[in-house]
Structure formats: C-alpha cells, structure tokens
Amino acid sequence: MAPSQQAKSSKSARGLLTGLVAGVCLLAGLTAATAQAPAKQPPATPQATPQVAPQAAPQAVPGFWDPRRRPERPDLSRLTVIRFLTETDYPPFNYTGADGNPAGFNVDLARALCEEIKVTCTVQMRRFETLVDALASNRGDAIIASMAVSPQLRARVDFTDPYYRVPARFVSRKDAVMPEIRPEYLEGKKVGVIGGSVHEAYLKAMFTDAELHGYPNDDALRSALRKGEVDFIFGDAISLAFWINGTDSGDCCAFSGGPFVESRFFGEGIGIAVRKGNDVLRQALNWAMFRVWEKGRFTDLWLRYFSVSPF
Questions:
Q1: Do residue 279 and residue 155 come from a single domain?
Q2: Pairing of the two strands 232-236 and 190-194
Q3: What's this model's pTM, rounded to 2 decimal places?
Q4: If residue 192 lies in a helix (H) or strand (E), which one and from where to where?
Q5: What is the pLDDT of residue 258?
Q6: Radius of gyration (Cα) for the chain, nearest Å?
Q7: In a domain, 228, yes or no
Q8: Closest alpha carbon to 253 in 280, 269, 273, 235
Q9: Residues 226 and 1: beta-carbon distance below 8 Å
Q10: Structural domain of residue 88, as residue ranges?
Q11: Helix (H, G, I), strand (E, B) or coil at 119
Q12: In what ranges is there compositional bias, type Low complexity (predicted)?
C-alpha cells in the first residue's frame, strides 16, 4: 500500500513519512544512482533534446553513512533493553502483521539495531500524534516511526543520524523517460504538481521556465499524467514509487531523472527520536545503524520493502 502523504512526519506537522525543511544535502553511498541537484547555471553546451532512456534505471539503495567516518563503539553496558515506539498504520514502514504483531521497515530495522547492540528489544504501536508525549513520559525509549527531523521537534527530542530521506522526483510516461533532468530541459514542458506544496515551491524556485499546473491532490495529479494532460509530475518519490509499481498506475509511467534532496525544501531526513539528553542511547543507535549498513543488512532490508526505489 502506497503512503498517502508527502512524509509520514506530517500527521502532526511532519516535514515525510505533507510534513516532510539551506543547502543541498547529498546522499552518501547511493548504489546504482546519484542524488541529482538541478544546475543553477546552464551547462557550457546546453543539450536541447536529451536522449530518451530506453529503460528504467536499476534499483538504487540509499546510504547515509560515510565509511570514512566510522563511529567508535560506545559504552553499551548500561543498555539492557530498548523500548521502541512506532505508529499503528503507515505501511510499509509500520503496520500490524498477519500475526497481530508490529511489522514493517521501521520495525525490522529496530530489531536489527537491537541485535547489533545485543539487547532485548520491544516494539509498541501507538497513534503517531501520541508518540512524543509517550516518549517524554518514559513509556518508551526511542521513536522509530518515519519521523522527520525538524527544528520544532528538536526542541522536544534528540535525533539520531538520518536513516533515510524523502526525496522528490519527476515522473513521466514510459515513452518519454529522461535519464537526467535539468531546468533547461523542461523549458515549455507541462509539469504537474500539488498546489501549495513544497514541491511546487521548489519548481517555482528552480525550474522557472517550466509550465506548472497545480492539482488539489495526488489522484488528480497522477490522472493528469496518465491522460497526457502534462508531460511530467513532480512530488514525493516514496509515494510515487508505490504508485508506479501498483495497479492504479496501469503500468503507464516511470521515474525521470534522479532524486532531489535539498533540505531547505524537503527536510533534514528521517531519524530515530530519543529523550532530550539521552546521549547513551542516541550514540548506541548511531553506531548500530552504521554497523547494520556496513554489513549490508540495511540494503537487504530496503530491497525487501521497496521494489521500485524512490532513489
């Protein structure tokens, strides 16, 4: 089931996972793809008509850990259990499995971190809007619920390093896929976007020569592309990946160009929240996430849940 909004962090005011917010944040360690930021200046020899890609790009797995910055193993002796909090219904990140137990990408990642730290791990599901209060009242130790890092939340909780971001991407019909998209390539092209969204603000700032068409919701936006009313649509790549791979798209469309990840528009990333000042747990989770990524377990987990990569 595709996520139904830009980033889940916006049920209360998230920035992913309409809350998925100066600079360009580059993804470190992408497999088979590179994060793409639109050029502010045209290239020395502009390419008026880019070659059409014959097929979709290969699967790409994001990685946000620099192997040159290996974290030191912290003192884990004071950790005996980690009580994770997650939310109830945001598949494929968190949901109730067939056996009635918590399941999803976030849940499996939490268990992998506990295995790496070698502590007991529990996962409790709660409504998203209650998670921060539950953490503050010591009903859990960490929140792993696709919560976007924001200045507002930083005032209430501390965050680990991000373990994924919510990029933005263009989607076109399959017969018009572009391997790369720059502002000059979309001059005069019709681009659909949700009106009033951060994605519209980004296009207005960076793709000034495109012909923008605003739509009230995802259904109207995606229908416009299927019907050929627009040449491209632009939005939350995670939601779009599930739509592309689902039955609603009718196998019409595919990603064009690479991901756009500027934090000024699309947020600082998705992290695990811990209580303010709990540096022991925060550092332990950062160390464990690096180890899980280094061993290839993060890649395995990502590929299990994302058959069409948002990156």
A1: yes
A2: parallel
A3: 0.75
A4: strand 190-194
A5: 84
A6: 20
A7: yes
A8: 235
A9: no
A10: 81-165+268-305
A11: coil
A12: 46-63
